[in-house]
Amino acid sequence: MNPRDAIILCQPDSMKSCCVCCGLFNYRDISKDNLERRLGNSPGSIVDNDSIDEKPQKYQHDIRDVTSHICRYQGFVSVNRPGCTLHPHISGIDERDRSLYGSRICQDYLCPAHTILNTRRKKLLISMVKEWYEYSIAILDPDSFIWILNELNEIFCGNFPDDRTDTINPLIVKCLSLHGAYLSRKEIPLFHYALSEYNQYKSEFTVANNMTEIKDIRRLLNVLL
Question: What pLDDT is attached to residue 49?
């Protein structure tokens, strides 16, 4: 599959978005509260520039991988939507060259989730998950999102009932939130820019390789039986 022929996951709708590739999940504490505080502490999100962290990497004890960049220009571009505060759709002009990677790299890059998730799974993710944090967890670790979908397929014999979305969608969000809690306990880098690196290291953090987490997620989904 050519990811450029598929749905772009970065800003899929007006309700949520993802900026995982900006380094957000490279903080050691990836709890929703901490990341929302970080997103609120960006040049595009606050008025008092004195409180901006010019170089997040200087606080190395807070970082998972000090060799991976955390962009200071990521922030909330609207309610529940993190993104690039320098993007022309936000600021009116393209100011992304002020960032480390610049406009061209930011414009051209697509994360591994764009290749791993097929069109159907992308549509399910966008329709099922409305909150930015759980949505970002699925993009950070798409194989785990696929694992959760496969569990649902087993429960419903491959056919998601249209009249159960009010029940199913909140459970998907709970599963992703639970996975985020498990990921936060890991000390390793979680986001990998290249598909090959994601495939190399995913065994260290995906749901399928954690029996305790598998049991916890199945316990959540059993209410559908």
Answer: 40
Q: Output the six-digit token pair for 78.
A: 């609207």
Q: What is the DSSP string of the chain?
A: --GGGS---SS-SSS----GGGTGGGBS---HHHHHHHHTSSTTT-S-GGG--S-GGG-GGGBS-TTS---TTEEEEETTEEEETTSHHHHSS--GGGSSSHHHHHHH---THHHHS-HHHHHHHHHH--SHHHHHHHHHSHHHHHHHHHHHHHHTTT---GGGHHHHHHHHHHHHHHHHHHHHT--S----SSHHHHHHHGGGT-GGG-HHHHHHHHHHHGGG-
pTM, to two decimals: 0.88
